[in-house]
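// run 5 | inverse folding | seed 20
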C-alpha cells in the first residue's frame, strides 16, 4: 500500500482553494473603445519562452513565474525586514507534506500555512498600509534546498522544523526556539537485527539525508565508536526530496532496517504502520529544539519573528491549538491516502486543457481563476446572477464578443470564461510593451472590475508616474485607492497561490521520482 500516492502534476498545481469571489461588474466595451495608455496592439499571441528561465523551474508557458522577475516572490533579494517590506512579501520556505503544508479540500493548510497567515497579520498590525499590505508567500521545496535557497535570496524565512545545530548556526541565524525539547531516536522494522544500545550500530548502515541534523548525530556516535576502536556506522545518503515519513514507511515495510527521526513523528502513524517499533530508549540527540531560520545580519526580521513566536509557538495557546489540530488529532492516513479532494478538478481538467490550448492561455492559470471564482463548482450562483465555475453573467457570455449563451452547463461555462479572458487580454492589453504575465494579470483585473475601469486605472497610473503596463506595485496601487480591497485581493490570490502550487507540484514530482529511484513505490504500490 502506498501511503503517499503520486498525484498528477496538474492536480497538485490546481488544488489551490483560493478565497474570495469575483465582482459582478463584467461588461463588454464597444469595439471602438481604446485605451488611452497605448494605441499599439500586437497582432499575434505567439511569444517565445524567456531565455532567463531558471533551470530548476519547469517551463509553464508564458506565465512561468521564473521568466517574470516583476512577479512577487520571484525576485531574488537579500536584506532585512525593511527590504522585504519594500518588496511587500515575506517568503517562507518549507517542505510539502501532511500536517506541515498540504492540500485539503482544495486549499493549502497545515501548521506552516496557518502560521504564515498569522505572521502576515503580525507584520501588518499597527501599520498604515490600507489595502496595500505586506503578505506572506509559502514556498515548498526539497529539504536539502532550504538553506541554499535562503542564502541565495529565494526565500526569507525557513519554517520546516529545522533543529538548531552548531553546524547550521555557522550558516544562518535562528529565532528563539519554536518547539519544546525533542529527542532524536531510532525506529526499527521487521528487517532489523536485534539491537540493545546505539553502539550495536557499529559496522551497520544507517540511511538518512545528508542535510539532516540526524547526520550530525550519527557522526557524533561515530566519534565515540572511533574512540572505542569500533567500526564506524556507515552513512548511506538518501535523496533530499524524501521526508522522514518516507523513511518511516520504508522501515515499516522492511525495505530498510531502521531510521533516525524526531520522537514525535512515529506517533503520527500509530495504528497505520503496525510493524514499526519505536525505540525511545535509543536516543541520538536529547533535548533538541527546532526554530525558524533566517539570513545572518537580519536584526529587524529576527526581532519581529521572535516577538511573533513568543505569542504563537508550541506551548502558547495558539501553538497548542495548531499542534492538536495537525499533530495529535490529525488523520495522517486519511490525508496521505485521500484523493477525493482532487476529484472535482480531475473531472474538469480536460476542459481547461481543451479551451486553454484553443485560446493560447495557460490552462493552469485559467483553472486557478475557476477555483477563485467557485471552487470549480458549476452549481454556484452569485447574488447578481453570475453562473457556474467561471462565475460569468449570462449577458456577458451571450454578447457577440463571446457568443456562448448556454453557460448553465459546465463545458460552455468554462469555454465562455476562458474566451472572455482571451477577449479582454487581446482587446485591451495585447501590447508589445506588456509582458505575457501582465497581460494575464490586467485581464484578471478587468474580469473582476470591468474593462472600462481598468482603462481608467491604467491612465491614472501613468499620470501618477507608475508603469501602466505592470500590475503589481503599479496599476495595483491605483486599484487599491479607487476600488478598495476586492480587485487587488482577487488578482493577488490567484497569482500567488498559482505560484505556490506550481512549486508544490515540482517538489512532489521530485519526491515521487526519489521514491521510485530507491524502490519504495515499486515495493509498496502493489
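// decoded
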Amino acid at each position: 500500500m502506498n501511503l503517499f500516492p503520486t498525484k498528477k502534476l496538474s492536480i497538485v498545481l490546481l488544488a489551490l482553494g483560493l478565497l474570495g469571489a469575483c465582482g459582478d461588474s463584467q461588461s463588454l466595451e464597444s469595439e471602438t473603445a481604446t485605451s488611452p495608455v497605448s494605441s499599439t496592439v500586437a497582432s499575434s499571441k505567439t511569444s517565445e519562452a524567456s531565455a532567463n528561465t531558471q533551470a530548476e523551474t519547469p517551463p509553464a508557458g508564458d506565465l512561468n513565474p521564473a521568466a517574470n522577475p516583476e512577479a512577487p516572490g520571484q525576485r531574488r533579494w537579500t536584506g532585512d525586514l525593511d527590504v522585504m517590506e519594500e518588496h511587500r512579501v515575506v517568503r517562507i520556505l518549507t517542505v510539502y507534506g501532511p500536517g506541515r503544508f498540504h492540500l485539503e479540500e482544495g486549499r493549502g493548510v497545515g501548521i506552516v500555512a496557518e502560521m504564515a497567515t498569522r505572521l502576515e497579520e503580525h507584520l501588518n498590525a499597527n501599520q498604515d498600509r490600507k489595502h496595500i499590505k505586506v503578505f506572506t508567500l509559502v514556498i515548498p521545496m526539497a529539504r536539502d534546498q532550504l538553506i541554499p535557497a535562503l542564502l541565495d535570496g529565494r526565500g526569507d524565512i525557513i519554517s520546516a522544523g529545522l533543529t538548531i545545530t552548531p553546524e547550521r548556526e555557522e550558516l544562518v541565524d535562528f529565532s528563539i526556539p519554536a518547539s519544546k525539547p525533542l529527542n532524536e531516536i531510532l525506529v526499527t522494522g521487521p528487517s532489523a537485527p536485534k539491537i540493545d544500545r546505539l553502539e550495536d550500530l557499529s559496522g551497520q548502515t544507517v540511511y538518512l539525508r545528508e542535510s539532516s541534523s540526524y547526520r550530525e548525530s550519527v557522526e557524533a556516535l561515530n566519534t565515540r565508536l572511533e574512540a572505542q576502536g569500533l567500526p564506524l556506522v556507515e552513512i548511506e545518503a538518501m535523496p533530499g526530496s524524501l521526508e522522514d515519513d518516507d523513511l518511516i514507511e520504508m522501515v515499516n515495510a522492511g525495505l530498510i532496517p531502521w531510521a533516525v527521526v524526531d520522537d514525535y513523528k512515529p506517533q503520527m502513524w500509530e495504528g497505520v504502520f503496525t510493524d514499526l517499533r519505536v525505540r525511545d530508549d535509543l536516543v541520538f540527540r536529547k533535548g533538541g529544539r527546532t526554530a525558524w531560520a533566517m539570513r545572518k545580519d537580519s536584526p529587524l526580521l529576527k526581532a519581529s519573528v521572535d516577538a511573533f513566536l513568543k505569542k504563537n509557538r508550541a506551548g502558547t495557546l495558539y501553538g497548542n491549538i495548531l499542534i492538536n489540530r495537525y499533530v495529535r488529532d490529525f488523520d495522517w492516513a486519511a490525508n496521505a491516502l485521500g484523493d477525493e479532494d482532487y476529484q472535482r478538478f480531475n473531472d474538469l481538467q480536460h476542459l481547461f486543457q481543451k479551451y486553454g490550448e484553443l485560446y493560447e492561455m495557460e490552462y493552469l492559470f485559467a483553472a486557478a481563476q475557476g477555483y477563485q471564482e467557485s471552487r470549480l463548482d458549476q452549481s454556484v450562483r452569485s447574488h447578481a446572477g453570475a453562473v457556474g465555475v467561471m462565475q460569468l453573467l449570462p449577458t456577458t457570455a451571450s454578447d457577440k464578443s463571446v457568443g456562448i449563451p448556454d453557460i448553465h452547463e459546465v463545458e460552455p461555462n468554462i469555454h465562455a470564461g476562458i474566451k472572455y479572458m482571451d477577449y479582454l487580454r487581446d482587446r485591451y492589453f495585447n501590447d508589445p510593451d506588456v509582458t505575457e504575465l501582465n497581460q494575464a494579470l490586467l485581464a484578471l483585473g478587468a474580469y473582476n472590475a470591468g474593462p472600462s475601469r481598468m482603462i481608467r486605472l491604467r491612465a491614472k497610473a501613468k499620470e501618477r508616474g507608475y508603469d501602466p503596463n505592470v500590475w503589481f506595485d503599479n496599476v495595483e496601487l491605483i486599484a487599491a485607492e479607487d476600488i478598495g480591497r476586492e480587485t487587488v485581493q482577487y488578482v493577488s490570490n490567484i497569482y500567488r497561490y498559482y505560484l505556490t502550487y506550481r512549486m508544490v507540484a515540482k517538489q512532489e514530482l521530485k519526491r515521487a521520482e526519489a521514491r521510485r529511484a530507491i524502490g519504495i513505490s515499486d515495493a509498496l504500490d502493489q
